[in-house]
């Protein structure tokens, strides 16, 4: 059975989603460790006191050196969190070498199937990337945010994989601006991966439509239900990227920032299972840590595209 080392970066504003991600891994993946880079003290305090199995926590201060502190001083907190993505992945690659596969996972991912389905496509590949596969409505974003989505970046611990992640880390420390730069083709941590197929050999671009499905691509997919599970263009849903889902309050979420979800299969087999787990995460944290009141956006800045009341 392959062993996985996953990494994620989380602040107090996305802690509930991180717990939902962990819950999905615990259900779907038998042999893994999730290494979490905590970007603030509140996140570290909550997670350390909960004490999840198969989780290793790092404070950002543990990885900060002079170079990183310089980067911290010239960017926003959000940009600094993006900078942390290759930072923690490279740290785990070089210090925890006993896994078969490694991957960065954004906190707003949720697994519906064993992650091994991703790596089985090309088990000997050094790097695994996912194309945005933007739908017609989102096609205009390709030259803005790039071909690949870095909510998932997988690799093996071989010279190519380590070199790519190290290169990514160095680039992000140098510049991880949220400003879209069309001239230099940069956007946060993301567009750096666009050049990898020209720089690094043995890269696998994931084939399955069920990997990194999201609001920006699912509109163009044929979504069906088979034995109570979602299939996208006949590929089983492995994980969904819940970008655009916002938590308004402990009792209300907005499922999608951009449009209302009318497809009942997408709603009932993808969104609602996630929302119910998210609801449990919110209850777990707020009931055990009454002082924790982060991650709620409030109604004022959230469009009423698809509001959903939690139980």
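^ Assign residues to that structure.
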């Amino acid at each position: 059975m392959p062993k996985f080392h996953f990494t994620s970066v989380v602040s107090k504003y996305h802690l509930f989603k991180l717990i939902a991600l962990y819950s999905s891994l615990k259900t779907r993946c038998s042999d893994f460790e999730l290494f979490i880079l905590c970007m603030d003290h509140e996140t570290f305090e909550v997670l350390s006191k909960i004490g999840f199995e198969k989780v290793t926590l790092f404070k950002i201060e543990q990885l900060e050196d002079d170079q990183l502190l310089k980067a911290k001083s010239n960017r926003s907190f959000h940009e600094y969190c993006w900078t942390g993505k290759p930072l923690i992945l490279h740290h785990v690659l070089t210090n925890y070498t006993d896994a078969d596969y490694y991957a960065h996972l954004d906190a707003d991912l949720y697994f519906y199937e064993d992650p091994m389905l991703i790596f089985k496509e090309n088990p000997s590949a050094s790097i695994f990337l996912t194309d945005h596969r933007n739908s017609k409505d989102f096609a205009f974003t390709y030259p803005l945010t790039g071909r690949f989505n870095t909510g998932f970046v997988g690799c093996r611990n071989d010279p190519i994989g380590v070199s790519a992640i190290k290169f990514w880390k160095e680039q992000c420390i140098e510049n991880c601006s949220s400003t879209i730069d069309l001239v230099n083709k940069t956007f946060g941590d993301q567009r750096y991966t666009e050049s990898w197929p020209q720089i690094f050999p043995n890269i696998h671009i994931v084939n399955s439509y069920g990997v990194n499905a999201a609001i920006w691509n699912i509109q163009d997919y044929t979504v069906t239900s088979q034995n109570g599970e979602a299939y996208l263009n006949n590929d089983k849903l492995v994980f969904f990227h819940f970008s655009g889902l916002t938590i308004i309050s402990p009792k209300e979420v907005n499922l999608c920032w951009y449009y209302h979800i009318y497809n009942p299969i997408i709603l009932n087999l993808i969104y609602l299972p996630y929302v119910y787990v998210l609801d449990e995460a919110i209850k777990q944290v707020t009931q055990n840590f009454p002082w924790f009141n982060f991650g709620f956006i409030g109604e004022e800045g959230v469009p009423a595209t698809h509001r959903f009341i939690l139980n």
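Residues 4-309 form a domain with the Spore Coat Polysaccharide Biosynthesis Protein SpsA; Chain A fold (CATH 3.90.550.10).
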